[in-house]
Amino acid sequence: MKGQNKLFIAIIIALLVGVGIGGIVHVKYPENAEPFAKNIKLLGTVFIRLVQMIIAPLVFTTLVVGIAKMSDIKMIGRVGTKAMLWFISASLVSLFIGLILVNWLEPGHVTKLPIQDVSSADELLKSSKSFSMEDFVKHMIPKSLFEAFATNEVLQIVIFAVMFGVALANLGEEYSKPVVKLFDIIAHAILKMVGYIMWFAPLGVLGAIAAVVATNGFEIFKVYAIYLRDFFFAIAVLWLVLLLVGYFILGNRLFDLLKRIKEPLLIAFSTTSSEAVFPKLVEELEKFGCNSRVVSFILPLGYSFNLDGSMMYMTFASIFIAQIYGIEMSLGQQITMLLVLMLTSKGIAGVPRASLVIIVATCSMFGIPPEGIALILPIDHFCDMGRSMTNVLGNTLATSAVSKWEGQLTEPLDKI
């Protein structure tokens, strides 16, 4: 754990240094803020791209190996059913928490936001108009495995890997053993790479934070103080619910789990990318004692179907925009909106800024001006920090819980 603690401390230092450097540039050299942000953001880009480089092969190899080793089709169905029940329940709870708190706190009625240039939301408005059932199917079913690999479409890779793994499991050990062994070696080699790549995390954190502070400064927090306060309060409530459920299932082992994932949580918070910590989560969950087959099956699915922080944010932001424009929505309309968000959010995994795209599409459906997304764009980076970290927590708990239910949660590997 010593190496982990060193990395955790390095990330904390990078976070503080990034805020400091960004603040100095914003205050002392405002004319250079834009080019500075553009250049230092490259540090974050390097880290994210290094992680993205290994996600597709890691998801594919671990998932195929996990399913092929299960060999029992009933077990695959049972684990998949438990996972989907968790995902659906957690998504509904997250959406309801966002809905209840945004109606109770009413940030849209008390926040005085400056009029934003709607052109900043043009790209999102265009993206949302093209969203349809056809897009839903296209994002789920791969036209080509190589295309899915090239674009890091996790859901498409998952679908191909599940089918390929099931086929291998049914071939018999004589045929499948060499292939499974090869993929197992590749997966372990990629996990070894994770250790090297994670040491780039502090630089990535420094670049991402310095860029956003240099561009926006600290004044932006004053303008959006109520919105941020209410959103992070809602995130805290969601965390409390998730941790209570986690404690009910895992008992005191929950605290060991949280200690192990503190680093991925901090990286997700700082870089606003839950995807960036996927390889590290695989490693830590296996060390925690989760069955490798369960981890390799559930975690990739969770990244497509179990984004708790993003789900909560969708209802929160949609109703917030309605409040800003003075649009009153009945309880029935809000429940309908919740169900629409529940379905549409499952169809665009891997789309950049997916949460915002879905919010725009949903607002259009319910007569809320979609241009209102421009009001929350300036602060979205900070909200994304909270929801990315929450997504990581939700997927960690889901994987651990299903491992426990399957009787596949052993003692931590580094304590045996």
UniProtKB/TrEMBL annotation:
Query: How does the entry describe its membrane topology?
Result: Multi-pass membrane protein
- GO terms for biological process? dicarboxylic acid transport
Instruction: Please provide the record's keywords in A-Z order.
Output: Cell membrane, Membrane, Plasmid, Symport, Transmembrane, Transmembrane helix, Transport
Q: Which domain of life is it from?
A: Bacteria
Q: Which SUPFAM superfamilies match?
A: Proton glutamate symport protein
Q: Where is the signal peptide?
A: none
Q: What InterPro entries has UniProt attached to this entry?
A: Na-dicarboxylate_symporter, Na:dicarbo_symporter_sf
| Cross-referenced Pfam families | SDF
Q: Which GO terms describe its cellular component?
A: plasma membrane
Annotated localization: Cell membrane
Keyword Cell cycle in annotation: no
What are the protein's GO molecular function terms? symporter activity
Q: Which spans are transmembrane here?
A: 7-27, 47-71, 83-105, 154-172, 193-214, 226-250, 319-344, 356-379
- What is the protein name stated in its UniProt record? Cation:dicarboxylase symporter family transporter
